[in-house]
Amino acid sequence: MQYKSMVRPFSLLLASLLVTLPLVSCSSSSDSPAGTNNEAKAKGRLQQVLNQNKLRCGISGELPGFSVLDDQGTYSGLDVDVCRAIAAALFDDPTKVEYVPLNAKERFTAVQAGDVDILSRNTTWTVDRDSTNQLAFAPVVFYDSQGMMVKKDSGITSLKELQNRTICTQTGTTTEKNLADQMSKLKVTYKPVVYEDINAAYAAYAEGRCDAITSDRSQLASRRVKLANPDSNVILEDVMSKEPLAPAVADGDAQWADVVRWVVNATIEAEELNINQKNLATFTTSQDPVVQRFLGQKDALGKGLGLSDDFASRIVKHVGNYGEIYDRHLGPQTKLNLPRGQNQLWSKGGLLYSPPFR
Ligand SMILES: N[C@@H](CCC(=O)N[C@@H](CS)C(=O)NCC(=O)O)C(=O)O
To answer: Could you read off the pLDDT of 326-353 as tens digits, one per residue?
Structure first.
């Protein structure tokens, strides 16, 4: 698939054209068998995905902890596990996923064109993307904020010290816009260097072509571990924005949006109920009606979604609960070692909260 030639999707006019026209400049709609949106429109995306017998999932592919190729040549990460959880719910098989790497600029047009069934890619939920870009967002899977990384030996400790410095960022992101907003508030003049490719941006930073690089803090942490000397780089304390990262699907298909929403909720609810991959079997004989309902033994909750009633059980069996997913990719045993912070359950002081499974 080739999205490199696509124009920036933020313009209102272009975005509406891209939705109404069959994406003339994007070759992928014709060469992907399921690439047209027609089937999805006629039967609904859920049926199309079931017919395809796989989920087409748009990811970054460049972010350790979120989506990256591992040593075995398979994608792994928190964003990847969202796709695996959907495949587990749909097919009882988390491997039925085709991963489509998308850069920041091309991600929305790929969803609008129907070239991916879902975008699970460190994407911030904003009003403009929800409306102008015609996306429907699932619950937030990672509460993030924008940060700034500098070389330790630069002595820079705050944004204010970046006066007249060069700052690398990436096109088509909230990052680019927040940077402008924050620096104008602080009355700091800086030189932005904007890249389309994430690797080019971090290479420029590593080679000293920019004094600082800004992005989601999770991303800075993720890419910091890939730098030659991670410890020579620091992420400043300044919090520049709210970046609630959430999966997204195309607007206009409520059933599909519901499926994705409740798959994410299921991972959170499982953690709240203390049901995990290891102990799942012990819950199948539970007399607790809440557990029975969640695992599909009571009240047929999957039916209304078009899923099997044991969809939540399938997710836990194959992928685990949210806490397991987090720990596997971002937790203390990983190189990233990101504290859970706001990404903790609401009952433990965080922001993760699933509406009831009832
Ligand atoms: N969360 C922000 C930033 C996400 C983002 O796409 N960041 C860029 C780097 S600043 C990225 O991940 N690029 C990966 C890529 O292009 O493969 C957004 O949704 O705009």
So the answer is: 999 999 999 999 999 999 999 999 999 9
Q: DSSP states of 279-327 as a string? A: THHHHTT---HHHHHHTTSSTTTTGGGTS-TTHHHHHHHHT--HHHHHH
- Radius of gyration, alpha carbons of the chain: 21
For range 37-64, the mean pLDDT: 90
| Distance (Å) from CA 349 to ligand 1 centroid | 28
| From-to residues of CATH 3.40.190.10 in the chain | 12-143, 146-241
Question: Is it the case that residue 236 has pLDDT exceeding 70?
Answer: yes
Spacing, Cα 216 to ligand 1 middle (Å): 8
pLDDT value of residue 340: 97
The pocket around ligand 1, CB under 6 angstroms, is made up of 60, 62, 103-104, 122-124, 169-170, 173-175, 198, 215-216, 219, 243, 245
CA 161 from centroid of its chain's CA atoms:
32
Q: Supply the CATH classification number for the domain 12-143.
A: 3.40.190.10
Report, at the CATH architecture level, how domain 146-241 is classified.
3-Layer(aba) Sandwich (3.40)
pLDDT at 71: 83
Among all chains, which residue has been given the structure tokens 């596997």?
A: 328
Cα torsion angle, 256, 276, 216, 196, sign: negative
